[in-house]
């Protein structure tokens, strides 16, 4: 995806160069540009995916649509939005997508186009393996171990009360979450500790995915409810195990994890540690990860380690940098803070 910028020499455009772009781009064999259309300001009105508010393009831009073929007959769909010269901030940004991937997040593209970025997004790239952690929660969420929002709020407040000052900055305590809970039961403590610990391979105890971070608790509820029901279960039933009666409580943290990795991972994961072609071309990647992200803040650190391992422990900071952002939750784009 990042390669697109290099191919198009990311720069702001005007109407003529936009119209000429497909001919130019198709000189590069891998890239198939389907269309490039000039879009005047306010001509495209989307709706903001978090607020629902109307989201028009403040600046005119060249909207490029196309795909890149890979591994034979597979292809990656993409869009590249190039703002008009006067509005361009001279920066290029790749936005991701969530959940089942397979979509281009045009709403996130628009937010960033309106900040002056040249912005790209593709269909691919989301990490499904992380959702096995939901099983841990499902397991402990039954009966006494259920963690409702008041319990989760209480836990985050307690963690911050204990640890907040360690980084040298004491946050405004009036920002604490509201809660009517005053203590946790032992089953609730067991459930919370299992979620911090993360799931391990039942065959050898290896970490499958790192657990959730201290301070992310109040963001966990979706994993116990809508994500576990509407996301993990259908992926397992329809895609991975091809068994519509599969009961998630029967999930095997050995063989079933292998099946997820073998079947779902090649379709939706964007986790390769071989970035050599990107690096060789002079590519630079800046990754931002919120510490309070409930979907595995530590995974970004683990991935950086995997990348270092894959390059024989070379210093990768000349082309790959990870920034861990205190208090930030899952939606980096909106910069929503846990507190
Ligand atoms: C793509 O290639 C795979 C492997 O050769 C084959 O099984 C599949 O049917 C092909 N799909 C299409 C749509 O051609
Ligand atoms: C949890 O805290 C948030 C504020 O951070 C508040 O909006 C929400 O109502 C609280 N939920 C419960 C159930 O106490
Ligand atoms: C806290 O309030 C919620 C509703 O917001 C309620 O379901 C729960 O039982 C209450 N818990 C306690 C300990 O009072
Ligand atoms: C998604 O999960 C929620 C429970 O959180 C449920 O009410 C809803 O019906 C589910 N939607 C689908 C499409 O299964
Ligand atoms: C489908 O899943 C159910 C429940 O987990 C299990 O009892 C059944 O044996 C599975 N069916 C097949 C064909 O594997
Ligand atoms: C990196 O390599 C070291 C040494 O082989 C190993 O202990 C560690 O688990 C590896 N880290 C990751 C994240 O793969």
Automatic annotation (TrEMBL):
Signal sequence, renumbered to the chain: 1-17
GO terms under biological process: xylan catabolic process
EC number(s) stated in the UniProt entry for this protein: 3.1.1.-
GO function term, MF aspect, one: feruloyl esterase activity
Keywords (A to Z) from UniProt: Carbohydrate metabolism, Disulfide bond, Hydrolase, Polysaccharide degradation, Serine esterase, Signal, Xylan degradation
Catalytic activities: feruloyl-polysaccharide + H2O = ferulate + polysaccharide
Pfam short name (any one): Tannase
Similarity comment text for this entry: Belongs to the tannase family.
Descriptive protein name: Carboxylic ester hydrolase
